Amino acid sequence: MKAMNQFAIGVDYGTNSVRALVVDTADGREVATHVYNYPSGEAGVLLDPSDPHAARQNPADYIEGFYQSVGCAVQRAAADPSFRPERVVGIGVDTTGSTPIPVDRNGWPLALAAEFAGELAAHAWLWKDHTGYGEAAEITEKAKKVRDKYLNKCGGVYSSEWYWSKILHCKRSFPKVFQAAYSWVELADFVPAFLTGNLDPDALPRGICAAGHKAMYHEDWQGLPSAKFLAGLDPDLAAIRDRYAVPALTSDRRAGSLTAEIAAKVGLPAGVAVAVGAFDAHMGAVGAGIKPGTLVKIIGTSTCDMMVAPMNSPLVDIPGLCGIVPGSIVPGMYGLEAGQSAVGDIFNWFVKSLAPAQYSADGDGHAALTRAAEQLCPGASGLVALDWNNGNRTVIVDPLLSGLLVGQTLHTTAAEVYRALIEATAFGALVIINRFEEYGVKVKEVVNCGGIAEKNPLVMQIYADVCNRPMKISRSAQTCALGAALFGTVAGGGYKSVEAAQRKMTGVKEMVYKPTKAAAAVYAELYRVYRTLHDAFGTVGVKHRLHGVMKDLIRIRDEARRGSG
Predict the structure, then answer these.
(1) What is the model's pLDDT at position 297?
(2) Fewer Cβ atoms within 10 A, N terminus or C terminus of the chain?
(3) 72-101 pLDDT, tens per residue?
């Protein structure tokens, strides 16, 4: 069968929805797509009114999301004369992460059992759940004292967004759920396991992406951290380690074949290859054409910054990164991950909670504020903000840090604040670029993808001016799903390698945002101000004082809420 007659499906599990994309493997042409919005919680996220750090999801939404998104996408693809379900060679899956799910002995999510349906802790622990910040700090301190430098490959600090801190927090805060869970499975591993009928926690394929970036897995210490190290945190963590299949696999590998039961529900033949899963940003980077020297920014509710580096060249450990993992993005290369804990979430927060009603009169507060912010000159507002509204992911790695706005007066307008928040995320992006280059990883080009990159020229122009670099845009508006489809293609035998598939299936748009000399000069000055604030509030001594303030505020808030309730 010729490549031009083959198709692949990418399934992209985001924070609020799941998207299925059918592509032609010959050239990456997007044939059909469908989005399923998670019905549970608030835009798919289960929140806890008593704890703003909590963010969970209903695993039932993941299962129904696959049926609805893939089934509808396949139906729509039938309008293409060349499409036939039997020509689908592979399915790839990307998800948010770290989003671990507590499962029973059969690998089934606890939340889907009647006993735990109403227990928030039994659901999937979404990537932006920060309830385990105390446990993350404890893991960091303990890891600093052992011979195997577990944190050297993930920036030197363990995060509350990651696998072990969430599990340990569950053990301490929700012991009933922890004791009922036989194991914990990342969403990126659960979906391929479900699709292929291999849910056994002891045997289901675990992807190197989730294992390496979030669970401290590395070949230097033969896989996961030692049982002794984990038992030192809690004896029961060692058992979780024993129920984690190794070795972890790259996403060009086949996790298994689509079961007949699931295939029938989505209009596909049984036996279609299903690739090992990975995180959305990592597959998105592949879908954007990542290669050595290319920084791919996946800009959404948060931002992930991805690079790759050849494994035959020396690469030092880079403090503050979310991971340096062999094969996590492109097999055979180091995958480097950094990012910001909030970007789109910051803009959404401001529009939803603080923007005057006049900006939402036409139903699109973002568009109205963007139009107003476009009329402002760089530096004219006198404002500088820190982009830590959901903590700092890179390079400080601290979920308790919070946003800051400096320079506000009684004359400050909503548009000025909105622009300052955009600029803050651009300054945070530049910090990450500089960190890469300080440690010898040269950034030769920047390719952006995601809804914000697609829809907001002001954001992209500000990023170009602040970073003083051209900003390219991935050709696909659905880059993560495209990357997943690309891996499905390789796992199904459509191409021999990821690089070969990239050459045919990926690209960038003709439009490039180029820096403006005058604006770049002003932003260079503002960046120095930003770095002064960044470095002052990010130092250990100041952070400790800020942590004390935050804990006092949380205690006072919780007491006030209990009193008013």
Answers:
(1) 97
(2) C
(3) 999 999 999 999 999 999 999 999 999 999
Q: Prior bond to 515 cis, omega within 30?
A: no
Q: What is the pTM of this model?
A: 0.91
Nearest residue to 127 (alpha-carbon basis) of 408, 426, 341: 341
Contact 380, 423 (CB under 8 A): no
CA–CA gap between residue 92 and residue 483 (Å, rounded): 8
User: Rounded distance, CA 539 to CA 131, Å?
Assistant: 22
Type of residue numbered 217: Y
Query: What does 426-449 look like in DSSP terms, one character per residue?
Result: HHHHHHHHHHHHHTT----EEEEE
Angle between helices 344-353 and 365-374 (to 10 degrees): 100
What tens digit of pLDDT does each residue of 31-44 get? 999 999 999 999 99
The top-level CATH class assigned to 344-431+517-564 is alpha beta
What's the Cα-to-Cα distance from 162 to each of 70, 154, 323, rounded to whole Å? 29, 11, 11
CA distances to 130, 146, 167, 173 from 179, rounded to whole Å, are 21, 28, 11, 12
Q: What is the DSSP string of 248-273?
A: -B-TTSEEEE--HHHHHHHT--TT-E
Give pLDDT, residue 2: 44
pLDDT digit string, tens, across residues 418-454: 999 999 999 999 999 999 999 999 999 999 998 899 9
How many residues in total does the chain contain?
Answer: 565
More confident residue, 132 or 538: 132
How many other C-beta atoms can be found within 10 angstroms of the C-beta atom of residue 217? 29
Task: For residue 170, give Cα distances in angstroms to 130, 300, 411.
Answer: 12, 28, 46
CA gap 398, 408 in Å, rounded: 25
Q: Would you say residue 266 has pLDDT above 90?
A: yes
Per-residue pLDDT, averaged over 483-510, amounts to: 97
- Positions of E strands within 300-414: 303-310, 323-326, 333-340, 384-386, 404-406
Same fold, 3-128+185-215+248-278 and 344-431+517-564: yes
Backbone angles phi, psi at 46, to 5 degrees: -90, 120
Domain ranges of the chain: 3-128+185-215+248-278, 344-431+517-564
pLDDT given at position 544 = 64
Other CB atoms within 10 Å distance of the CB of residue 482: 29
CA distance 87 to 180: 42
> Hey, what are 483's tokens?
């990357």
Could you identify the residue written with the tokens 């394929």? Answer: 205
Q: Choose the most confident range, by mean pLDDT, from 214-223, 313-322, 467-476.
A: 467-476
Residue 1 banded pLDDT, cuts 50, 70, 90: very low
Mean pLDDT, residues 125-130 = 95
Rounded-to-integer distance, Cα 442 and Cα 319, Å: 16
Helices (H) and strands (E) in the chain, counts: 19, 21
Predicted confidence (pLDDT) at residue 154 exceeds the cutoff of 90: no
Helices (H), 197-287: 208-214, 227-233, 235-242, 260-266, 280-287
Domain 3-128+185-215+248-278 classification at class level: alpha beta
